[in-house]
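Input chain follows. Return structure tokens only.
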Amino acid sequence: MVKLLCHRLLLAVPTLVIVSMMIFGLQKMLPGDPVLAMAGEQPDPQVIQYLQHKYHFDEPVPQQYLLWVKDALHGDLGEALRTGVPVSTLIAQKLPVTLQLSVMALAFAMLIGIPGGILSASNRGRPLDYGANVLALSGMSIPNFWFGLILILLFSVHWHLLPSAGYVSPADHFWLSIKTMLMPAFVLGMGLGAQLMRHTRSAMLGVLRSDYIRTARAKGLRWPTVVIKHGFRNALGPVVTVLTLLLGELLAGAVLTEQIFTIPGFGKLIVDSVFNRDYAVVQGVVLCTAICFILLNMLADLLYILLNPRLRRGS
């Protein structure tokens, strides 16, 4: 296990280097000049020269990249060009918001996807299986922005049950925070739940064809007991792996949902930063997201080995 962890960490280093180069290089290809945006409509040449020197825009791109990496290794991701707030401070403020949304969405995905996948696999070829597959395809096909607007129209405008937008910290008002996050979490959870249902169904079908399942049935065990106790326990490894990767997908891909529901998380921060040409914030947020995704991939590998005794013996 320790050997595997060290191997994954060694692979993570070149991956982070490549990701950081892509982040920095692609950022430079964006149209517009952040210095001109900061200087105003009628900029003074001296002000432009000062800003370029302050943020190292007057140096070659490779030199800018090395300076950025050096500062990032010391925990300094720069400052927001417009507000002067450290990027690390912005990340510390926005990450808990997106993390709360992601955890709640993952909970909805598990409630939808795991029971649906088990029912679909245990009723293969029957109407329940076809119905579950239709629901899964519908969940993956419906755009998040359209589904979010429909929920706002129903639950906020017509029925006045849930807040339409905004964010309240759990530390300020726990239940109001949960109510505010219910709709965006359900919007994200529906699409992810459909993906999780397909993966759960595939894993369960492979397990239910096994010899020990037929042996358990031949011993007279009830079908629900066979499915849950013997089937799902052995199909849990791939499901947990997919869940871990879906959490990384949520951290990286909640942009549209956060925009629709005006949630001040990672998604809204990066969209606003791109529009403002705030290079430092975009680079810091994308780098932080990449690190989270790499760590979650490592966690998925470790959990899969822990849940599979054969792989654990092999490692």
